[in-house]
Design goal:
single chain, alpha+beta, five-stranded mixed β-barrel, two-stranded antiparallel ribbon, 25% helix, 23% strand, globular
Length: 151
């Protein structure tokens, strides 16, 4: 908790230095965490996943099958769309630090990475959630994949 307080103080100092308003996402009674979840989505949009109809989740970036880690609070909830912090390989590929998101947030926070697909080519249900990665046509088509990145 002490570390959380230190991080909060640092964030407030940064906001004051750049003269930005410090805005809360609501009182404890309202518990509106949408702004927080949306900001997490903005930071981890590259780690977005969609629920697979058969089992687990599929990553948007490379269609890899992953699962929510059993120790996660989201394990039995099964949200349709999530972002994760890291993948852990044990018996399966597990997502850790998972947050449920709205797929429309991906369009807002990463417009250069996602776009809406043609609504005439897909079903009504998929129209609301279909996202396609964008590619740079001058680069290798697989250069955007996390497995191809060099850090």
């Amino acid at each position: 908790m002490k570390r959380c307080q230190d991080v909060r103080k640092q964030l407030i100092q940064i906001m004051e230095r750049f003269r930005l308003p410090v805005v809360s996402c609501g009182s404890l009674k309202l518990k509106d965490y949408t702004k927080i979840r949306k900001s997490i989505c903005a930071g981890f949009f590259y780690h977005s996943c969609r629920k697979d109809p058969t089992e687990g989740y599929k990553t948007i970036s490379d269609n890899q099958q992953v699962f929510i880690h059993p120790s996660s609070s989201m394990f039995n909830k099964g949200p349709q769309w999530v972002v994760y912090h890291e993948l852990v390989q044990t018996t399966k590929e597990y997502m850790r630090e998972v947050c449920a998101i709205d797929p429309k947030w991906l369009l807002e926070v990463a417009p250069k990475f996602f776009k809406e697909s043609n609504p005439k080519q897909i079903s009504k249900r998929k129209r609301q959630e279909k996202l396609e990665p964008l590619f740079n046509r001058y680069q290798d088509p697989n250069a955007w994949r996390p497995s191809r990145r060099r850090c």
